[in-house]
Amino acid sequence: MERVVIVSARIGAGHDGAAKELARLLGERGTSSEVVDFLDLLPGRLGRILCGAYHRQLQVAPRSWDWLLGALGSPGPASAAHRFAGLAVENLADAVAGAQLVVSTYPLATLAAGRLRAQGRLAQGLVAYLTDPSVHRLCVSPWADLVVAPNALAAEQARALGAVRTVVRQPLVAPAFRPVAGAAEKALLRVAHGLPGDRALALVVSGSWGVGEVERTVGDLRAEGTVEPVVVCGRNDALRHRLERAGVRQVFGWVDDMAGLMRACDVVVQNAGGLTTSEALATGLPVLTYRCLPGHGRANAAVLDQAGTVPWVRSPDALGAALHAALQPVPPVFDAIAPIEVAG
User: Fold this and answer.
1) How far apart are CA 179 and CA 175, in angstroms?
2) In 3D, which of 331, 339, 4, 13 has the Cα closest to residue 174?
3) Smallest Cα–Cα separation from 127: which of 93, 149, 103, 95?
4) What pLDDT is attached to residue 208?
């Protein structure tokens, strides 16, 4: 039986979300697949240290991530990142042995697999799956047979960075993320989640770690008054407790039924442009980017705004008009099973 190895990483939820959905789809088609975590392939505790350092950086000094990501776009620091990824090469070689295809959903895993290919040790096909709307140079290896991009702008960026071949495909999201069936389903979902039935609701999301200017975003939404914020804090319990003490009525920690919660709401306000944005669009909800994270958050915001998919609201003064526009009835943004478009 054909076997596919998918290499992801538990940094945020976007890389793992795409990997899990790809594995599910492959299983439906009778293909055996295995998801491995790149962080576990690094020596010793290095993977855990890397994940923890990135998490703390976004919490304590998020602007430094903007600087670091920019620096990694230049040849010297990028070479250092390539060498770091190379630390996982031996364990990666063992993990993908016997597979017919290797798919990477995480940039450093793509670099490590590319190094294996350059050394003549990876005969399998290599696919780099991009989980963000924008593309950093570390996401692309010239040794990858194919780069799967979530939009045409990302495909252009990937080709400019050396991608040999690209395809454009709508982001992978679980089938639970579908448009609401009608007013009756929305009403039932609001009751199930303890939400008010008589107000427009804005779902405020900030990734699985709950990072960014979430409290300022909530304050701006409450002051503007068009919508009531429904805030998902992910695993950030301290943020949840602060919002509850501030009198925010609809505050959630980790949510298992995010698809149902989305269908209960009217608009999504997000700050990173990753997996949750793709899930919201697949659900048929309008999405706004507001107070976005530095680094990849701003890069994603720019691409989504340029593509006309998700407006980037750059100031509190513009928030009201953006909300009113988003709440107007519109058709779904995209069909989650749209056909693949080949480019390059």
Assistant:
1) 10
2) 13
3) 103
4) 80
pLDDT at 343 over 80: no
Query: How does pLDDT run across 226-256, given as a tens digit for each residue?
Result: 999 999 999 899 999 999 999 999 999 999 9
Residue 232 phi, psi (nearest 5): -105, 120
What average pLDDT does this structure show over 256-260?
A: 95
Distance CA 44, CA 39 (A): 10
- In whole angstroms, what is the distance from residue 333 CA to residue 263 CA? 15
Q: CB of 147 within 8 A of CB of 172?
A: no
Burial class (CB in 10 A: 0-12, 13-18, 19+), 200: middle
Output the pLDDT for position 334: 46
Phi-psi region for residue 308, left (φ > 0), alpha (ψ -120 to 50) or beta?
A: left
Nearest of 260, 255, 244, 247 to residue 190 by alpha carbon: 260
Cβ-contact 204, 221 below 8 angstroms: yes
